[in-house]
Amino acid sequence: MRHANLLHAAPAPPVIQPWDYVAMRRNAAGLSVEQLATALGGKVYERHLRAIETPGLRFQQIAALDQAMPFSATVYRQLADLPPLQHPRLCQRCGWDAHTDQPDGCGGLITWSRTDDAICTRCEQVTSQ
Fold it and tell me: Which of 4, 70, 89, 114 has the greatest CB tally within 10 Å of its CB?
């Protein structure tokens, strides 16, 4: 029987918190808080957006962010409600998940990078430019 060599084990990826996920998806969409608030219906959403991006705060209900940018309320709920070992796998740079179909900018859909399994192909393309 072989034992795992814990001295050389790969480190666990950083835990993405729900507030990080919201900010990552908003930044990946190229939107400021103000721009996203406008897209959702006006200035009234700005305070809500700033609150859901505040570290330490978790919300039972959030605005329908998927109407203005690629966003999964299911992923948000999992990050807010489940322990980190049960969190979904997310791109460490933009928060993309494998259940979100999104163009990669090169005529295909985003998938996991073949060279860095912590990021998606869209982030890989941005890095290589």
Answer: 70
Please say whether the beta carbons of 113 and 125 come within 8 A.
no
What is the four-CA torsion angle of 76, 89, 56, 54, rounded to 10 degrees?
A: -70
Domain ranges of the chain: 14-88, 89-129
Cα 95 to the chain's mean position, in Å? 2
14-88: in CATH 1.10.260? yes
CA 17 to CA 35: how far, in whole Å? Answer: 23
Q: What is the pLDDT along the chain (129 residues), one digit of tens a residue?
A: 555 555 655 566 789 999 999 999 999 999 999 999 999 999 999 999 999 999 999 999 999 999 999 999 999 999 999 999 999 999 999 999 999 888 887 888 999 999 999 999 999 988 776
The conformation of residue 84, written as its DSSP 8-state character, comes to G
